[in-house]
């Protein structure tokens, strides 16, 4: 896959790997990485597998609660920007700091949390038809919850929401005690 000239660097890591937003199939918020001399597409299933594996190593509650800290950054960002979040250096510094607790895995976990942060921001700009995504970044939270807390396979979690009605997904999120305030505050009916 080739990418347009609209690539916007959002984070360069200490090992030289870079995340970019670029125009994808659906919108200009496609996250890709540049590593080892070439661009690579990124897929939810790979990062869901990664967080599931780290949850086995460090504990489900530890990994899920760290993920919620990242999700809360996106919540705050959305409120500060009236529903138009974008990456902030302060947020990236927070992600780096909380990742240091994982020792030799810290850089890989920082990249993983970075992926979730950037893709959760992108969810705010995703359109279904002509309408913005109703569930915003809670859809990523659902996938993480499913693989970390429910031991769902990453492949199943990555495609779980496809073809499901919004109300069914919202009901599942409420059953799992998701904070839905941000969805309600920024929903367009």
TrEMBL record:
<protein>
    <submittedName>
        <fullName>Uncharacterized protein</fullName>
    </submittedName>
</protein>
<dbReference type="InterPro" id="IPR054273">
    <property type="entry name" value="DUF7004"/>
</dbReference>
<dbReference type="Pfam" id="PF22539">
    <property type="entry name" value="DUF7004"/>
</dbReference>
């Amino acid at each position: 896959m080739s990418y347009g000239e609209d690539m916007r660097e959002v984070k360069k890591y200490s090992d030289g790997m870079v995340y970019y937003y670029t125009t994808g199939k659906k919108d200009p918020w496609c996250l890709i990485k540049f590593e080892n001399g070439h661009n690579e597409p990124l897929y939810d299933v790979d990062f869901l597998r990664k967080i599931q594996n780290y949850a086995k190593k460090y504990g489900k509650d530890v990994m899920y609660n760290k993920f919620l800290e990242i999700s809360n950054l996106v919540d705050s960002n959305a409120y500060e920007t009236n529903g138009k979040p974008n990456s902030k250096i302060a947020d990236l510094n927070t992600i780096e700091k909380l990742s240091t607790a994982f020792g030799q895995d810290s850089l890989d976990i920082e990249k993983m949390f970075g992926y979730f942060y950037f893709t959760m921001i992108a969810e705010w700009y995703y359109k279904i038809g002509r309408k913005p995504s109703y569930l915003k970044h809670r859809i990523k939270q659902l996938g993480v919850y499913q693989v970390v807390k429910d031991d769902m396979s990453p492949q199943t979690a990555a495609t779980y929401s496809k073809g499901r009605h919004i109300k069914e997904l919202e009901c599942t999120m409420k059953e799992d005690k998701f904070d839905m305030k941000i969805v309600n505050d920024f929903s367009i009916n």
